[in-house]
Design a protein that fits this description.
With 204 residues, this protein is of the alpha/beta class. It folds into 2 domains: 149 residues, TIM Barrel; 36 residues, no CATH class. Helices cover 50% and strands 15% of the residues. It contains 9 helices and 7 strands, in the order αβαβααβββαβαβααα. The protein has a 5-stranded parallel β-sheet with strand order 1-2-3-6-7. It has a two-stranded antiparallel ribbon with strand order 4-5. β4 and β5 form a beta hairpin. α4 packs parallel to α5 and α6 packs parallel to α7. Its EC number is 4.1.3.4. This is hydroxymethylglutaryl-CoA lyase. Pathway: Metabolic intermediate metabolism; (S)-3-hydroxy-3-methylglutaryl-CoA degradation; acetoacetate from (S)-3-hydroxy-3-methylglutaryl-CoA: step 1/1.
Length: 204
């Protein structure tokens, strides 16, 4: 994270878009703050082995670091988004228990993360394991504060996303996507959004 300043100075910023910076510790947060960052992210894991391999500390140690970051962010009115890796499977430990994911997710939410993204980091999730994981997490964190990030390693990403979207208002989701596309000044590539637009035009 040593090049925060160079990156933030050189990227072309689009009005209305938040450019979040990964801040694994207080030092990283302070560096991001000096660059004028308006949002930060903290990145944990539900697997002990992955946490040690990825950020060189235990889950417990990572949460202690993140808590300090969240406190500093709150003092500076900076929103924080949380991320949890390996929510269904780990390259070192295999399957990850939903209760382990729920515990880390709740910790991040309780610290003040406005949203926590649940990542199937190595793409081993299935609709069944994704459903079980979500059921565990939803016992501790409200659905409107959760997001899901699926990798398509074994061709299951769309099925897993569909599982996660059960009960979601699709029209509002499409509207949100179109709003983002308008802000970025580009057309949507979503087939669902295109189909809905075509259907509305056909009715009018």
């Amino acid at each position: 994270m040593a090049d925060h300043e160079q990156v933030m100075q050189r990227i072309k910023k689009v009005p209305g878009i938040s450019y979040s910076v990964l801040t694994p510790n207080l030092k990283g947060f302070q560096a991001a703050l000096e660059c004028g960052v308006k949002e930060v992210a903290i990145f944990g894991a539900a697997s002990e082995s992955f946490s040690r391999k990825n950020i060189n500390c235990s889950i417990s140690e990572s949460l202690q670091r993140f808590e300090v970051v969240c406190e500093a962010a709150k003092e500076n009115n900076i929103p924080v988004r949380g991320y949890v890796s390996c929510v269904v499977g780990c390259p070192y430990e295999g399957s990850v228990a939903p209760k382990a994911v729920a515990k880390v997710t709740k910790n991040l939410f309780d610290m003040g993360c406005y949203e926590v993204s649940l990542g199937d980091t190595i793409g081993v999730g299935t609709p069944g394991s994704t459903q079980a994981m979500l059921e565990g997490v939803l016992e501790t964190v409200p659905v409107n504060h959760l997001a899901i990030h699926c990798h398509d390693t074994y061709g299951q990403a769309l099925a897993n996303i569909l599982t996660a979207l059960q009960g979601i208002n699709l029209n509002k989701l499409v509207d949100a996507g179109q709003f983002i596309c308008q802000a970025l000044d580009r057309k949507t590539s979503s087939k669902v959004a295109q189909a809905r637009t075509d259907g509305q035009e056909a009715k009018s």
